[in-house]
Amino acid sequence: MKIVKSDFLKNVGTLFSGSFIAQLIGFGTTVILANFLYDADEFGQLEGLLKMATVLVAIAGLRYEVAIVVEDDINEAQNLTRLSLVLNTATSVILLLVILLLKNTIAAFFNIENSNTLLLLPLFVWSMSCTETVINWRNRSKEYKIISTNRLLTSATSAGYKLGHPFIELFKGNGLIYGHLLGQLIALIHITKKLPFAIFNTSVDTLKSIALKYRSFAVFSSPAALLNILATSMPVFMILAFDGTTSAGYFGNAYKLSYLPMSMLAMALGQVFFERISRIKKDKEAASQMAHWLFNAMFFAALFPVVILAVWGDKIAPYILGEQWTETGIYIQITILFYFAMFMTSSFSSAFSTYKKLNQQLIYNGIFLISAFLALYLGYTIGGSTRVALAWFAMVGTILRIAVLNYFFFLFGKNLITKTIFAILITGILIYLGFGIKEGF
Questions:
Q1: Is the separation of the CB atoms in 139 and 271 below 8 Å?
Q2: What is the rounded distance in angstroms from the CA atom of residue 26 to the CA atom of residue 433?
Q3: What is the mean pLDDT of each run of 10 residues along the chain (441 residues)?
Q4: Helix axis angle, 175-192 relative to 121-140, nearest 10°?
Q5: Is 197 helix (H, G, I), strand (E, B) or coil?
Q6: Total tally of structural domains belonging to the chain
Q7: CA 375 from chain center: how many Å?
Q8: Domain that holds residue 174
Q9: How far apart are CA 425 and CA 135, in angstroms?
């Protein structure tokens, strides 16, 4: 187990180093962008478009990209990669046709002033989904340096254009959107460079055969992923529908200051854990030891930043972004415990695929989506504000995330009940003490 941990940490470190630098670039850029160059409405436009793209990316390849990591046979994994890329492209073309027909209706529903912005959505979906597919191939091959460099390159390219757009204006419109898209396209070009196999060296029959063999991913995992992404993206969609792009911009930057830093670590841990647990899944002792060790490391790594944001988020956000972003700080305080629970579960979510529990994943995500929608809808219709809606969403989401986290550890072979109780108690006590200190000052 010591060797496994050492190798595990080495691979995570390789991935996280690039993610950490990319996050620093993104964070530093956001401070400048929010203070001097863009307003909340422009941030909200980007947030809405990205959430739409994220939802569609989840199903663009019908989740065949997940099977790439699980598959032991290299030829089968290559064909899964090809199949996923074909499906990503087909989905993006269909999406373009739909937007050409319905862009005005979609724009009106989400309070998007310029409906032509939606024409960029298919390009977002194609570049993001294809990049994710090839990253899964690189993950399977343990090419973590390439993945790490890819994240760094994406962040640097995106940040550079966003900063320069107001001064050069190569294109009229929201520079945040153009910069993000440019970063995604550069990411795709970089990650696909020098692949060890020809992408188009296949046949229709081969793709059909591989699609049928792994159809459970399309039947169960794809709808489950769609439901999960819809649920986690639901706050942005509901804020856009009920409160507009400005509030969506506040929420988007709250996400960037709170969960996004944690997500970088969770993504690095999750990718390496997925590859490793796929190899040792039959050894319950080794699997449970690794999972418990990872839980401990994640909890104590995030605990104090979470407590600080829960107590002082309303002061931190306007201090960093400017006084006009005070509402962002309130949103951070409301949602941080949900994002803490989300951080703790995200690295282990591959258990659904690893242990072939895709039908349970579908059921859970269905419950999550319905609960998220009802919490937000009732929060707006009864509570009457975005703050209330987010509070109800965060409470429901936290409970469900804690429940599914315990289910993952049941699959790994050793329950998490005692540690869950301890984690809740220690987090609650520290936040209580934190507010006491805050009031004392």
A1: yes
A2: 32
A3: 52 61 76 85 89 90 85 86 94 95 89 87 95 89 82 88 81 85 93 81 88 86 83 90 89 86 68 65 72 83 91 91 91 94 83 75 88 94 92 95 88 83 93 88 67
A4: 30
A5: coil
A6: 1
A7: 21
A8: 2-440
A9: 38
